[in-house]
Amino acid sequence: MFSLEGITNTVHEWLNNHFSPTLALLTEFVLVGVAAIALFALLGLGLVWMERKVAAVMQIRLGPNRVGPKGIFQTTADTLKLIMKEGLTPDGADKFLFNLAPYIVMIVAMLILAPIAFAKNFQIWDINIGVLYLSAVSSLSVIGVLMAGWASNNKYSLLGAMRSGAQIVSYELSAGLSVISIVVMTGSLSINDIILSQQNGWWIFKGHIPAFISFVIFIIAVTAETNRAPFDLAEAESELTAGFHTEYSGMKFALFFLAEYINIFIVCAIGATLFFGGWMPLHIGHWEGFNHVMDYIPSSIWFFGKTIGLIFLIMWFRWTFPRLRIDQLLNLEWKYLLPISMFNLILMTIVAIMGWHF
Amino acid sequence: MFIKDYIKDVYGAVKSLLTGMRMTGYYFTHHKEIITEQYPDNRATLHLAERFRGEVVMSHDENNEHACTGCSACEIACPNGTIKIINKFDITPEGKKKKAIDTFVYHLELCTMCNLCVQACPTDAIKMAQNFEHSVYDRSKLTKKLNKDGSKLREGIE
Amino acid sequence: MNASVIIFYIIAAFILGAGILAVTTRKIFRSAIWLLFSLIGIASLYFWMQVEFVAAVQIVVYVGGIVVLIIFSIFLTQKSGDEMPKPLKNRSIFSALAVLFGFAFTFNLIKQYGFKQIESTPFEVKVSDIGNQMLSTTEHGFVLPFEVVSILLLAAMIGCIVIAMKVKHNEQ
Q1: C-alpha torsion sign, points B70, B71, B72, B73
Q2: Are A117 and A274 contacting, i.e. CB atoms less than 8 angstroms apart?
Q3: DSSP state of C27
């Protein structure tokens, strides 16, 4: 069966055999860029369709079902529509920043993609501080939102941007702490090491209750960080029309829309890597036979399966829970998630030191 | 005690969230619950809600008789002048004059389907029908006469 | 001149260009954004030097923390969207002179230092080493500065809470 394993090595060797190292490196950059953009486009189309279908079925509706079988080409049609639309820039806007903001958001999303392992030996950049890099770069995404909100010269946009800023800055803390609790277990920040440490079982099973608690906190915090319901105060349509992207139209709006889904994919990929072993197949301790059977499923399928499972979980949240008020949002973070995750980190450290995990 | 309340809070929150998720999860796995009608495709088998109100009709039985006495209660009840009742006087076999309905004029274009006329009717002569495909090319077609030609009041209704 | 050197010059030009724009632009929000780009450029310079830890910390602290705070305070300022008046001629002349003098001073110092060309071995520091050094009590350990900074931050945090706290009035 097709798998992404080892493709990178083949390409790398072939390029280095045929061209000079500099040229080979440049070609690799271009290839990675094209691959990332293609992945983004596919993810955007696929996830928007998935979201609409999930939303529909959860609300006892049918969802898109006219364009193509089960409405699968609906998002393609929408994208075509968005491309044809006029990209309007308001008169009083700071035109340079207004036009720059959607690209910043997209570039940040692309940068976060770098250390994620999509399959065995299929990773753009195995950086030794992988997890720290992820949390550092993901803190940049707030800049694009703030920029868009300010440059629109619109009160709704500005309010949305400020809410989003406050939200991302505060929820980063508990997301970071829950990530750290896994780092405590593995003793390494590198994504590759974290995945390899789950060879005999995923952390969510190996780490007992603390790992589960930190997984729950992680999911809540990243839902807030990606500005999704029930934490979508930044674009609460009943209060702020569309929040920070009120003034955007056409392709620039599409970029914001795409970035939302890319970010969901990325945070779910991180969650899958940390708690569910990334591309690592389901292994249980020393059950050799069982582990061998599981190894027959390609690693890329494991990775994408887990990620899409987590994405489904986040969509499930969105179509179940009502939106929080801003004070409830901050209460949840500072009075509940943060103390619990700190306490949980201590528990995790005790488990790691005593070696109680499997 | 503070810690006890805190834990109770967290427990209650998690429990209520899970209850909500169980509901949506149930709908997600049970596709039979879907209530969407794909209207132009399933015109033949369309299922409308029981209390859907499409237009006001007057029910006639097999003898072309209706129950409308021409009391004008519906006309008075109507908030926007949709109904206009024109009465005539029949001569009964005994030679007495008796008030009866000549034309029940119903302006569909003015009607908001508020159901007040049906509630006001003392003899249950009119009711709400479920037909909703009302579009026509000429506005005058929306002014309807509800009592059929040659129909008369059913016996025994005063 | 190989690709690495070219990349270095591109990054350096980006940092300097963004820095100059940050001080010359007359819109305060744009100024903050240029500062942000300049700081990101410095982080990318660290990445170029393959000291990823410092680069990531640069992004976390400066870009994700300080610039976001600056932007927030700009949002909360009145008339922050207006263009600022043109600086006085005297002032710009003096500031240009000061910049020139500072540049000459540092350039002189750097030139006199005479950097030694060392055989470049891969400069790799494990994060665990950094952590151990941070908490070690040996001669070159950083446990004292680390703890002092922690106390300072704790004091700042408590101060913030005290300022933000609602005082309950017990009337009667």
Answers
A1: negative
A2: no
A3: B
C1-78: CATH class: mainly alpha
Out of C36, C124, C126, the one facing A143 most closely (by C-beta) is C36
C-beta atoms of A189 and C57 within 8 A:
no
Residue C156 has pLDDT above 90, yes or no: yes
* R_g over Cα of chain C: 22
Cβ-defined contact of C60 to A94 (cutoff 8 Å): no
The string of pLDDT tens digits covering residues A10-28 is: 777 777 777 777 777 778 7
pLDDT score at C14: 92
Contacts with B79 (C-beta within 8 Å, 6 or more apart), sequence order = B112, B114, B116
Does B18 reside within a domain? yes
For an interface test with B, which of A50, A51, A52, A60 has the most B Cβ atoms less than 10 Å from its Cβ? A60
B50 and chain A: CB distance < 8 Å anywhere? no
- Does residue A12 lie within any of the structural domains? no
Of B9, B21, B27, the CB nearest to A60: B27
Distance from CA of B13 to the nearest CA of A (A): 11
Rounded mean pLDDT, C133-144:
81
**How many beta carbons lie within 10 A of that of residue B23, not counting itself?**
12
Phi, psi of A35 (to 5 degrees): -65, -40
Q: Specify the domain boundaries for CATH 1.20.120.1200 within chain C.
A: 1-78
Count of residues in chain A: 358
Indicate whether B23 belongs to any domain.
yes
Q: Assess whether B29 and B99 both reside in one domain.
A: no
Collect all residues of chain C within an 8 Å Cβ-Cβ radius of residue A165: 68, 71-72
Cβ of C71 under 8 Å from any chain A Cβ? Answer: yes
Do A94 and C56 lie within an 8 Å CB cutoff?
Answer: no
Using the predicted structure, report yes or no on whether residue A115 has a pLDDT greater than 50: yes
Q: Considering only alpha carbons, which residue of chain A is nearest residue C3?
A: A22
Residue A62 to residue B36, Cβ atoms within 8 A: yes
| B14-66 tens-digit pLDDT | 898 889 888 888 888 888 777 888 888 888 888 888 888 888 888 888 888 88
The residue ranking higher by pLDDT, A188 or C1, is: A188
The reply to whether B40 falls in a domain is no
Overall number of domains in chain B: 2
Q: What is the ipTM of this complex?
A: 0.78
Per-residue tokens: B133: 């495909």
- Best of B7, B18, B24, B36 to mutate (most A CBs within 10 Å, chain A): B24
For A62, the closest of B9, B23, B34 (CB atoms) is: B34
Is some CB atom of chain A closer than 8 A to the CB atom of C131? Answer: no
Kindly provide the residue ranges of all beta strands, DSSP E only, lying in chain A, ordered along the sequence: 117-119, 122-123
Q: What is the CATH number of the domain that holds B146?
A: 3.30.70.3270
Residues 6 or more apart in contact with residue B129 via CB below 8 angstroms: B54, B55, B56, B57
Q: Check CB contact of C81 with chain A, cutoff 8 Å.
A: yes
Supply the range of the domain harboring residue B130. 55-153
Give the rounded percent of residues in chain C with a pLDDT score beyond 90: 18
- Residue span of the structural domain in which A342 resides: 92-354
C40 or C85, greater pLDDT: C40
Task: Return the residue of B nearest to A62 by Cα.
Answer: B36
- Kindly state whether residue B41 falls inside one of the protein's structural domains: no
For C2-22, what is the mean pLDDT? 87
Contact A135 C127 (CB under 8 A): no
Rounded Cα distance, B150 and A82, in Å:
60
B10 and B88 together in one domain: no
Question: Out of A54, A58, A60, whose CB is closest to B35?
Answer: A60
The pair of structure tokens assigned to C58 is 């640069």
Interacting residues of A196 by C-beta distance below 8 A, sequence separation 6+: A280
Residue A348 counted as domain residue: yes
What share of chain B in percent tops pLDDT 90? 1
